[in-house]
Amino acid sequence: MYNVKILHEQSECKRILIMAEENYLVDIKMYLKSGIHIGTKFKTKQMASFIYKTRPDGLSVLNLEKINERLRVVANMISKYDPVDILIVSRRENGWKAVKLFAKVTGCKVFPGRYTPGILTNSALEDFMETKLIVVTDAWPDRNALLDGLKIGVPVIALCDTNNQINGIDLVLPCNNKGKKSLGVAFYVLAKEYMKARGVIAKDEEMPISIDEFMAE
User: Fold this and answer.
1) Do residues 108 and 84 make contact, with C-beta atoms less than 8 angstroms apart?
2) Which of 153, 158, 170, 200 is the most exposed, fewest CB within 10 Å of its CB?
């Protein structure tokens, strides 16, 4: 009788685990491989609710389920906007490939490199542009875009690591926002879910660019 109970509990745990994995937007192994959950040795109080634990080596680890859920929420939010109304900004070079590929498959605007203050507020600038939604890969190096977004009153989504402050951000996407592979997986998932929500690709259809291409060094 005791063995039957143990087998039943093991079966139930396995069922719950399978259900949890089915809720992930990509194979959980891809998340782990990319290190999307590995944070820094610094953590802010504002990011505490997204942190799962701190390892013996001092690195904080983000909650993978919360990352996955926020990716779903962010994808749903950006799907409300036409591509021409979305601006992706990445000062950090490790994010350039990911944001460019995202722009390539979705058609949104992208600004890799140093963002000059006023691009969204000063129509006299040569590179002036208009947007209705801003996504930044890191709120600190991309603070000029964040401040411009606050001035014109458009929503700002920010990928935030354990060391980020989140002042002025409308929606936080917790993740490792410094690694190429981590950023690649994040923007692959966002692109895939955005295109599905917009009806560009079917729910069971593959992306035109693979996750491996987004993750490539």
Assistant:
1) yes
2) 153
